[in-house]
Amino acid sequence: MEPILHVSNLRFHYQPDALSKERWALKDIQLTVGAGEYVSIIGPNGSGKSTLARIIAGLYLPTEGDVHVCGRATSNEHELWQIRRRVGMVFQNPDNQIVAPTVQDDVAFGLENMGLPRDEMKARVAQALQWVGLAGMEEREPHHLSGGQKQRLAIAGVVAMQPDIILFDESTSMLDPQGRAEVCQLIKSIHERGTTVIHITHSAQEAFMAERLIVMAEGQIKLDTPVAELYPQAMKLKEWDLDVPLEVELHHRLVKAGWPVRASITSKEDLVSELWRLLSKT
Amino acid sequence: MEIVIEDLNVIYHPGTPFAKQALTDINLRVASGSFVALLGATGSGKSTLIQTVAGLIKPTSGQLRIGNQVVTPKSKQLSELRRLVGVAFQYPEHQLFEETVAKDIAFGPRQQGLTEEQVAERVEEAMRWVGLPPSLKDRSPLALSGGQMRRVAIAGILAMRPQVLILDEPTAGLDPRGQREMLDMVGRLHREQGLTVLLVTHQMEEAARYAEQLVILSEGRIALTGSPREVFGNEQALSRLKLDVPEITKLIMALNRNLDPPLPLTLFSVEELERELESRWKRGDDR
Amino acid sequence: MTPVVIGQYVPVDSFLHRLDPRGKLVFVFAFMFLVLFADRWPSYLLLTLFVLLAVKGARIPLALFLRAVKPILFLIILTSLLHLFTTKGGGVLLQTPLFSVHEAGVEQAVLMSLRLFVLMATATLLTCTTSPMEITNAIEQLLRPLTKVRVPVHELAMMMSIALRFIPTLWGETEKIKKAQMARGVDFEAGSLFRRIMNHIPILIPLLISSFRRAEDLAMAMEARGYRGGEGRTRWRELTFARRDLWLIPTAATLWLALWYLEK
């Protein structure tokens, strides 16, 4: 897999001119993401995960180190605009990322910035709205939408720009369960279309939907592992005050209690059938 | 303090083309000192119900009684009721406005016309209750972390010494640790101060773990009420209401698809589930 | 729970709705100039008649239209009373020790209220038949030549559009904060005027803080979507003059000529 994102020796400080540089927001970040990957990043508040997302999106510049997105360095002012076209970002607060007074105008906003001809815009706006399930609401005003709908609108605005990477920065944290489910479903289909997805979240359940999981704490990457290999080591998440999905905890407890459960469980369904096997043997 | 709601209806903009029935025939009794979780999808009427209980919306018909305060559509003054009920809306930290933590917490008690000494005492007490160190007293609330700001906001409500505390999604937007700490704090307030707590939440885990009584609203009506065991054990009602269930209940339901006899749906901690599985397994061995 | 804004856009389909907003805007300004220039009875009758016809043609429910105009009723009454009592001239119609009413006063009062009514009705008609987005767009395009003299036309239009987007959001937030502070014991209706103004500080400060936070978030979101000012930008909303827009020209010309004749 060809890397679409390459971060090396990244350090970031919010006041790079400050005399004492003790409080680095990010330090010694090494990260390579291949095209089409689905990565989730979890970590407590203040662990630097949102900062990292903003650096990848070219919104902040590294204090030290290099960030290459699609082969372009974010340190190059001229390339920065190209990078922002290639990297889409969906933020946390659904209200504060909708720019225009109607649904269709908002989806078009990014396309206007790209300088696309009107015919192309028309096609892309229609397609994106169709895709997120907001077709027929073109003239709607954003404040008449539900939280989940607003977030889907934000996704439509990003998807219409056809970026190579889409970052979700805690995009589900302000939504109700229904809105969360809708957004998670969209994230999944974005990945299935071949777009690289980086999903930052607090929710262990959501993080486990990805193929690869990165744990951040204190401005560093603490763990970087394929989700399928996470079960045996998932209890480590508690070290950083993170939630462990219930089925993972149960598996861990049963192993400790001496049950002959397979160590290589990969998912909830896997655990359920393993338990069926064990309980029916008798 | 006991809350009794009888035949309550709330209609917004009654008698206009914009009229909208938000609550229909609500009958509910909340025992003094109990911990109640209010559940339901967005738009199910939760927000209207808590605002009515908090004395911010008047009923269109029916009545509400808290302690010996009765509110009917004809009630003129709701300020007495508001004294009894403290309410922290979603993201309550957005209502902070004073320069220092202490001044903001003191805002409510000052409105009640207490003396300066009494106010200072209330502030100190409220900060202790929510677990804010006294050293933060003179800091600007805006310079604190998200979790701490929320505590300041809740302290500002507790400082008015309400008998009933309503919290609308107090864990929204916090990280897992912040969520845990927030709920533990609410649980402690409930136990130690004897507050009657009404918790609005979307998270079934929270509801199952902390509440003694669940009230499920759907389209402005009470669809289901009972203890967590009664509610989450009632599989038919759950699927009829398309209600989200705790993760553990989901896991048990998945297991039950192929287990006979099924596991009970009334296990709410991983320890309980482990014990139940353990006993199953042992029983199998004996056979 | 959004407030009913004066002259809110009424999304129905009519000839007036379909007209190009630039044309409408220019026409309305020209028409308002005519109203201010008119000074005689026949002119006013003509202008009022024209406005009433336009309201009819806009297919806006009359009740909605009247509700939109209602807030200025007070202003109309006040102005006409002022003119009624202060304008001297002609025969005295009423004489009391305190004030007198002259013939010219009555005439002026009626003319002034008609003038105000026609002005307001025209403005309302414009906002009822043109969405705020179209108006913003039209202003941006009409003012575009000013870019040459360094007027930041695109930025102004963007500001207007963002304001349109966020006014309802901030209104909802105001209501929310108000409720929260009421629950903390603030009574917004009690006390002296000064007290009541002071009572709003606990609403205004949180609102200000949250607006700043929103602005910061929004700036970041706009940048993430590649916004870098008006340069190199294409537009989603394109305005095109159609044949029907040409009707505005003879209409305007006829009105001008008629007025010129009547006032002569």
Automatic annotation (TrEMBL), chain A:
GO terms of molecular function: ATP binding
SMART domains with a match to the protein in the record: AAA
A Pfam short name: ABC_tran
Family: Belongs to the ABC transporter superfamily.
Name this protein carries in UniProt: Energy-coupling factor transport system ATP-binding protein
Transmembrane segments: none
ABC transporter domain: residues covered: 5-243
Tree of life domain: Bacteria
CDD domains: ABC_cobalt_CbiO_domain1
Subcellular location: Cell membrane
Topology in the lipid bilayer: Peripheral membrane protein
Keywords attached to this entry: ATP-binding, Cell membrane, Membrane, Nucleotide-binding, Translocase, Transport
First-listed, main subcellular location of the protein, grouped into a coarse class: membrane
Keyword Transmembrane helix in annotation: no
Automatic annotation (TrEMBL), chain B:
Subunit comment: Forms a stable energy-coupling factor (ECF) transporter complex composed of 2 membrane-embedded substrate-binding proteins (S component), 2 ATP-binding proteins (A component) and 2 transmembrane proteins (T component).
UniProt key word Oxidoreductase: no
Role summary: ATP-binding (A) component of a common energy-coupling factor (ECF) ABC-transporter complex.
Main location, first listed in the record: membrane
Keyword set includes Zinc: no
Superkingdom of source: Bacteria
CDD domains to which the protein is assigned, alphabetical: ABC_cobalt_CbiO_domain1 (cd03225)
SMART domains per UniProt: AAA (SM00382)
Family named by the database record: Belongs to the ABC transporter superfamily. Energy-coupling factor EcfA family.
Pfam families for the chain: ABC_tran
Molecular functions (GO terms): ATP binding
Chain ranges of the ABC transporter domain: 5-244
Name of this protein: Energy-coupling factor transporter ATP-binding protein EcfA2
Alphabetized InterPro entries for the sequence: AAA+_ATPase (IPR003593), ABC_transporter-like_ATP-bd (IPR003439), ABC_transporter-like_CS (IPR017871), ABC_transpr_CbiO/EcfA_su (IPR015856), ECF_ABC_transporter_ATP-bd (IPR050095), EcfA2 (IPR030946), P-loop_NTPase (IPR027417)
Subcellular location: Cell membrane
EC number(s) from the headed UniProt entry: 7.-.-.-
Bilayer topology term: Peripheral membrane protein
Keywords: ATP-binding, Cell membrane, Membrane, Nucleotide-binding, Translocase, Transport
Automatic annotation (TrEMBL), chain C:
Transmembrane segments: 21-38, 45-66, 72-94, 114-133, 246-262
Keyword Signal among record annotations: no
Domain of life: Bacteria
Keyword terms: Cell membrane, Membrane, Transmembrane, Transmembrane helix, Transport
InterPro entries for the chain: ABC/ECF_trnsptr_transmembrane (IPR003339), EcfT (IPR024919)
Xref: Pfam families: CbiQ
Membrane topology qualifier: Multi-pass membrane protein
CDD domains (UniProt xref): EcfT (cd16914)
Cell compartments where the protein resides: Cell membrane
HAMAP family for this protein: EcfT
Family (UniProt): Belongs to the energy-coupling factor EcfT family.
PANTHER family per record: PROTEIN ABCI12, CHLOROPLASTIC (PTHR33514)
Function: Transmembrane (T) component of an energy-coupling factor (ECF) ABC-transporter complex. Unlike classic ABC transporters this ECF transporter provides the energy necessary to transport a number of different substrates.
Subunit structure: Forms a stable energy-coupling factor (ECF) transporter complex composed of 2 membrane-embedded substrate-binding proteins (S component), 2 ATP-binding proteins (A component) and 2 transmembrane proteins (T component).
Protein name per its UniProtKB record: Energy-coupling factor transporter transmembrane protein EcfT
Species lineage: Bacteria, Bacillati, Bacillota, Bacilli, Bacillales
